[in-house]
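User: My collaborator sent over this chain with a note saying "see what the structure looks like." That's all I know about it. Can you take a look?
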Amino acid sequence: MKKIIALIVVALFLGSTAFALTGPGIGDIMGQGKLPSDAHKVFRLVRYCPPDTTDALFSTASSLTADSIVIWDCNSDDGVTVTTTTTSYDSAVAGVIVGTILTPDYGTQGISAVDAIGKRNWGWLQTYGLSEVSGMTLGTVAVKSSLATSSQCGRAGSFVASTTNPVLQGNAGFYLDAYTAAGTDVQVFLTLD
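Assistant: Without extra context I'll predict from the sequence alone. Here is the result:
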């Protein structure tokens, strides 16, 4: 009987030692794919509000399309709402939309995220990992160039840090593919998480 107990203790010790040597420790493992060869990705559920605060019924706003680069909405300032920008290198860059998000179906711009639960203007934002963006209609970008918002709504450009303006520091990651003017499905790697 003593031999069986000793063998069980040894087996438990060896099993826990092997796990301790290979495990990452305490914490969340974010973005892990099904297989080790899958690219890691992190997503967040977000609410979309068009940037034009004067359009109370959103009648002239467009839906937010997949591959759009967006910023956190500083008007809602709830950490859940995103919008588009025409500011290059916007420091409020949030990530890339991975599926179309419709415009709000409610009549006022001032509705809170809590009150908007269940409405149609929710979707997925990717903040980390392999993704795709739509590029600007002007210029080109080389592989390894830094990724940022551009002067064209929802379209990505290359990041150039400002030495004088702290609101123009929005580096979102880097390009894995080069693109020429108006490139679509341009492969990038997001580093916002």
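A starting point for your reply to your collaborator: The chain has one domain: 28-191.
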